[in-house]
Each structure stands twice: as structure tokens, then as C-alpha cells.
Amino acid sequence: EPEVTQTPSHQVTQMGQEVILRCVPISNHLYFYWYRQILGQKVEFLVSFYNNEISEKSEIFDDQFSVERPDGSNFTLKIRSTKLEDSAMYFCASSGGSRSYNSPLHFGNGTRLTVT
Amino acid sequence: AQTVTQSQPEMSVQEAETVTLSCTYDTSESDYYLFWYKQPPSRQMILVIRQEAYKQQNATENRFSVNFQKAAKSFSLKISDSQLGDAAMYFCASRTSGSRLTFGEGTQLTVNP
User: Fold this and answer.
1) How distant is the Cα of A15 from the closest Cα of chain B, in angstroms?
2) Is A31's CB within 8 Å of B46's CB?
3) Residue B106 touches partner A, C-beta closer than 8 Å
4) Distance (Å) from the alpha carbon of B6 to chain A's nearest alpha carbon
5) How remote is the C-alpha of B18 from its chain's centroid?
6) Quick check: helix, strand or coil at residue A63?
7) How many helices (H) and strands (E) are present in chain B, helices listed first?
8) A102 pLDDT exceeds 70?
9) Residues B35, A58: C-beta atoms closer than 8 Å
10) For the segment A78-88, what is each residue's pLDDT rounded down to a tens digit?
């Protein structure tokens, strides 16, 4: 069964540094997402992406964050000038179908980001 | 805006027994989907079951079934014949015509041998 893959599985970075989290969505999916989960807390929506542009973003997704689909297969989340509170598990997800809410999201295994 | 509430932070069940996890939601939309995701210690998010709001029949996937009460905005998950591998965090989630999937706080399920 096709899977969403994320790399790296664990990223450690120093406060103030930039990180790029990478995802390869399922190949025929049209909608892409990033979510994060701070340890012990609920999964929070960050951003959704469709047709090469952001379709929705949360209040968490401020100017520190950006997303890109650089080559038709990868979907990246860039975090500029990381802060301690950015430490979390970041999940990429994708879904297919013409009506986005009709399709379940398929999640990757996540990237654990640790900011020191 | 959507909200999803799971009022049981932790639940436990004996192996082979049945357990029900509760979830309530709130939305102003008439058309939406509801989901249960499982997150084992590996922290991967795995889809367990989904329910279309316009369908009256409760969804079933093998040992997993839901009790969808639309008027009460309730969406509980029943796990029958619980197995040790069912131990995980379970998240209820909802989604409307927007792209955002909104999660509840999660319920940690322990399965006792």
C-alpha cells in the first residue's frame, strides 16, 4: 500500500537555526498537509496545500513557517529561526479526490524536531 | 469553527473484552466527515474508521465500529474482542468542506492481558 514518507525521522537543531522537514506524499494525491504534535498534547493543524498554493493555514503558521513543493514529488516545511517551543513531532499528510473532505488523510511517520 | 472533545484521557480494557471510547463534536456545517485515528507508541497516525455525516448507518471495520448520534453530535468508537495490539492513543477527528482536520485531545487505551 502506498505510504507517505518523511525524512528525517529525528532532527536536532540549535535555537535560531533553520530546518527543512521533508515529505513525499502518496503519488496520486492532490492535497498536502502539515500537522504538529507537541509532546503530550493534541495534534494541531498547521497548513494545507493544493494546486501549488496554500489553501488554508492556522494561526500557528506564521511568517516563521513556509511550505513548498519544489519538484512535483517532495513537500517541504521550512521553519526559520527555530525556537525552543517549536520542539514537536511534525506530521505530513496527503489526501486524494476532488472533494478534499471526502478523502481520509494518510499520515507519514512523523519527524521529531528537537530544538536545543 | 469545529471543535472535537474527548472526555476520557485514559481508558483500560481486559484482553478479549469490549471498550467504548467517547467523542463529541460541534460544527455548523451540515456535511462533514468523522474519523478515528490510532497512534501507537511509534507515533504514526493510523486511520481506524470513518463516518460520513449524511449516512445513518454506523460504520464498521472488523472489530471496530462507531455509534454515530448526529442529533447529539456524538461519535463513539467501540472496540470488540480487544487485543494487546490495540493499545494506543486514539484520536477522534472531524472534517468539513474546508481542508482542515480537527482532532480531539485523545484517549490513551491500555489493554490488560
Assistant:
1) 24
2) no
3) yes
4) 11
5) 15
6) coil
7) 0, 12
8) no
9) no
10) 999 999 999 99
